[in-house]
Please model this.
Amino acid sequence: MIGHGLGGYFVRRLLGSAIMLLLVMSAVFFADRQIGDPARMVLGVAATEEDVRELRERMGLEDPLWVQYRRFVLGMVQGDLGDTFRYGISKPFAHGGMPESRKTLPIAAERLPATFVLGGVTIVFAILVALPLGIYAAMRPRTAGDRTVNVLSLAGVSIVEYWFALILILVFAVQLDWLPTSGYGTPAHVILPALALSLRPIGRITQIARSSMLDELAKPHITAARGRGVPITRIASIHALKNAAIPIVTTIGDETVNVVTGVIIIETVFGWPGIGALTVDALAIRDVPLIEATIFLLVLIVLGINLVIDLAYMALNPRVRLR
Amino acid sequence: MAASSSVSRPGTTGEERQARVTARDLAAALARDWVVLLAVVFLVVLVAAAVLAHLLMPYDPLLPNIFAGRRPPFSETRGLDGGVQLHLLGTDALGRDMLTRLVYGARASLSVGVVAVAVSAVIGTTLGLFAGFLGGRVDTVVMRTVDAFQAVPSLLVALFVLFIIGGGLVNMVVIFALVRWVVYARLARGITLSYRESSYVEAARSIGATDLRIIFRHILPNMFSPLLVLATLEVALLILAEAGLSFLGFGLKPPEPSWGLMIARGREYLREAWWMITFPGLAVFLTTLSLNLFANWLRTITDPVQRWRWLI
Amino acid sequence: MAGRNSRHALRAAVLGVLALAAGPAYALGGGGELVIVANQEPQSMQAQVTYKEVNGVGLRNVIEQLTRLDPRTNEVKPMLATRWEQVEPRVWHFELRDGVTFHDGTPFDAEAAAVSINWLWNPENNYSVREMMGPQITAEAVDAATVAVITAEPDPLLPRRIYLGGVTSAKQILEDPASHDVHPIGTGPYVFEEWKQGQYWTATANPDWWGNTAEDPYGEIFFDRLRIVWRPEPIVRAAMVESGEAQVAMFLTKEECGRFDAKDGIKCIVKGSDTFLQFRLDYHGAAPLLADPRFRKAIFTSIDWEGIRLNLMGLGEALQGQMLPSVATGFHDGIRQYPYDPAGARAIVDELKAGGADIPSVHVSTRLGSTPRNGEMVEAMGAMLTSVGIPNTVAVEEPGVFNPRAVSKPTPERAYAWLHVQANPLMDYGATFGAHFSCGGIVSVFCDPDFDARVAEAASMTGKERHEALRALVKEGHDRYVVAPVGLLQRAYGVPEGFAWEFGPDHRIVAVNMRMN
Model:
C-alpha cells in the first residue's frame, strides 16, 4: 500500500511509532487531568478563588475537554507541549504569551545529551564486559569458570541499583578519592553512574550471550569444525557468534530500554543533569506540562531504540525483510 | 516443586517422542547443583517465614519504641512492656526489631511480586493462548495491544500511573499486573502456535477432540515449564521494581513494612546505622538472586536442547 | 599554578588601572571558588525566592534587601536603606544608600526601589512571599534617595518584614520581565553568571560592591567565585564535602554531624534557626468530633512530643508548647509542651465512644524532604495514635501533593493533620496568628471572628502592650489544641576544618560572612 521492500517497511514502522506516541501521550493527557487543578497548584499560597478562576481561563482549562485535547495534539505536532509551572505564573503571562524559556519541550530536550552520554557509555561498557564473559563461559560449560560467571551475572541483575550506587560513591569517591562523588562535566564524572547502571545489562547480556553461544556451539557444523581441528576461539568468534547475534542484539535492545528507565533513579542520586533527574523534579512539583514533555521524550527514545533494533535484525537476518 | 512436565526429548533416540521428567529426575539434578539447591532452600525458608511471620516473630513490626532506635545487631533493649528484647539484626530508626520487620517485609514484598505475577500470568496466558489458537482477528487485536504495551517501558508506565493514583500495596499490584501481562501473552501465543500445527494435535483433532480438550490436554501442559520460568523471573523483577519505586516515593506506604521501603528509608542512615539498609538490601538481593538462579536452572533443565547436558 | 598566579597578577593590574581611572576599586578576596551543595534546585531566580533561604540557596549573595537582620542579635540593621522612619501610621520612609548600582549598571535609586518593591508584592504576580506580607505593601519614590513604603493597615513590623523582599533591577522588571525568572540582577557582592539547569548556578565576586568601600558593610568578599550545586541524597551531599568537592553541605542529620566532628579535615556547624517544626490539626469540618476539645486533647496527649524531638528529630531545641522561642514578642512563659499521657488519651477516646461518638480517621502527612526524618516522625505519631484507639493514616507526600493542601483552607470533609516546617523570621506572634489562626489566613486552622478581632487589635500595638496582648492569645491558642510545636529546628552543615561562617537564626548562606582559614 505505502510501499514495498526496505523503504516501505521503514515508512510503516515510522508511522506505527508515531501512532504509538500519539496513543501514549493521549493517555498521559487524560491521566494528567485527574490530579487536581493545575491553576491552584501554580498559584498556591495566597491565591483567591477569583485568581484561580482567572488563571484557569488564561490557561484554557475552562474550555471543554475535547478543545483542550485538540489543542494538546496540535501543539504536540508542532513540538509545543506547553509552558512549565516552575517559575510560577506571573506578569509575563498577562502580557500575552510566554517567552521561549518557559516552553517545556526545549527545557526537557536540553537534558537529552547528558542522558545519551550516560546511557551510551553504560551500554557500550556493558557489551564490552558481557560479550567476552558470555563467550568465555559458553566455551567451557559446567566448569568452575562457567558457574562463577553464571552466578555473578545473575547477581548483577539482582542488586538494588541505588544501594549499589551509594556504596560506589562511598568507596571510590570518599574512601579512595579516585573519582568525583557526583556531578557532570568531565569523563571521570560518568564512571560511577555508568558502573551503577551497567550491572543489570552486563548480567543480562552475559546470560544471553552464554546460552545462545552454547546453543550454537552444540550445532553439528560447529562440532564438525572442531573435529577438523579449527581452533576453538576462531570457531567462537566467526561461526557461532554470527548465528548467536540475533538473541544478543534483542537483549542489548531490551537492556538499552531498561537503561532509559534506570536513569530516572541513578541520575537523581548522582546529580546527573539528564532527563531522568528532570522527570523526578517535574513529578515532585507536579509540573504537568513538564512531566508530559519528559514522558514524550522518553517514549520517543524508546521507540527510536526499537526502530534501530529492528533495522539491526534486518541487517543480520535478511529473511526478516520478507515479513 | 514441579511435579512433572511433559516435553519432547530430541537427540536421545533418533525419533521425537514424548518423555516425562519426573520429580525424581529434578531432585537428582538439583542435588548435583549445590548453588541452586541453596537458592531453593533459601526461597522455601523465606516463603515459610513470610507465611508464618506472626508465629515466628516475637515482636510487633509496627509498634515503635522510639527510645530504642538505631541499635546495632545483637543489641538488647527494654521493650514497651518492660521486658528485655534481643535484636539480632539491630533496630530501625523507630526502635523496631529489624529481623521482625524483614520477615513481615517479606510478606509485603513477596505478595506484591507473587500476586501481581499470578494475575498477569493468568490474563496474559489466556489472551496469548486464544490469540494463538484462534488466530485471525483475535490474534491481530491481541498482538497489536501487546506491541503497544511493549513499545513503552513498563516501569515508566508504572511510575506514571502510581504518580497519578498514588502508591500502596493494592495499586502497585494492579499496575504491575496491567503492565506485565504482555510477556506471558507473547510466550503463550508462541507456544500455542508451535503446537497447534503439530502432528499429535492434528492426531487428537482427527479423533474428534474438542478445541477446549486440545487446549487443556495438549497445549497447556507444554506451556507449564516455560511459564514457570518466566513467572519466577518476573517475581524477581517486581521485587526490584518495588524497591526502585519506593526510592521515588511511589512504593508501598508506611507503616507497611516492605523491603523497598526499608531500603529507601535506610539510605539516609547508611553511614551511621549500616544495618538499616544493608539487611533489607541483602534480603532483596538474595531473594532475587535465588529466584534468578532457580529460573535459570529450571529453564536449562526443561529446555529440550540443553537438558540432556544436565539431566543425564 | 603559574597560570593562575599570572591571571591573578593580570587581574590586579587591570584593577589597578581601573582604580586610577574610576576611583577606588576593591582587590578581590583571593579565596578561590566556594561550592555550596544544597538539597534542591531552585525553581526560579526571582527576587521573591530570597525570602526563604531553602527556596533559592545562596541567592542573597546576588540580591540584597533594604534591611537585614544582625546575625548575633537578630536586630534589624541597615542594608540598602541606611535609615527608616514611620512618618504616618501606614507610611514608612526609607532613606537609601548612596552610590549603589545594580549589576546591569543602572543606579539604585528611589524610583528603582519602588518598582522593585511593587513588583515583589504585587497581587497580580502572586508570589509566595505574600504569605509573609501582612497588610498589602506598595511603594513610591519621595525623592531620589527616599522611598515611601505604604501598608494597607498600620504595620509596626514593616522594617523587619521588608528584609524578606529582594531588590532587583527596575530596568529588567520594566523591559524584560521574563528574564527576571532566570537571571537575577541585584546589587549584592556577587554577580550572577549563569544557571545551568539541572547542574549548578554560579556568580563571581563584584568588584563594585558598595560594601567594599562602605563603613558599615555586613561582610567582606573572601571567595572569588560562588557555585551552587544540588544533590537530593543527603549521603552524596556529605560525601562532596568529605572529598573536597564542596565547602558547605546543607542539612546534615545529628548523627552525620557527630561523624563530621569526629573525622579529621571536616567539621559540622550546627545552630538553632527561626524555623520550627509543627504539627497542626484541622479544626473545623464534617467530622464534628474534630471541633470537640476533648477529642483534640486526646490526640495531642497521645503523642510523645519530647520523645519524638529527642530521638527522631535529633537536631531540635525544645519549644514550650508554643511555636516561637522565648525571644519572640508574645512568648508565654506559663505554658508547657503538651504532656504525653496515653492512658488519659485512651480514657477520653473510650468515653467518647461510650457516648456514641464515631471516632474519625485522622490523616497525618508531611512533605517529602522538608526536614530530615519527617517520615519517621509521622510514622511514630501514627503508631502512637493507633495505640490509644484513634484510627489514622500517615504519608510522606511529594511537594506537588502536599503543598496545595497545606496552603489551602481546610475543606469541610477533611480530617487532616500535617507535620511541617514553618519559618518565622519576624519572631512575633502577630504574623503567626495572621497566617494560622485568623479567618482570612489562607492556611488558617480555625476561624473565630472574636479571636481575629483581638489579633488585629494586638497587631497594631507596639512594645510591652503588644507583647501582653499577644501573650494572652498564645495561651488561648494553646488551650484549643490547635498546633503542637515539635521543636525549633537546628540546621547543621558539613564544612572543611578551618571554615569560618557567621550567620543568624535565619541561616542565610551569605558568602561574605564566610572564609577559609
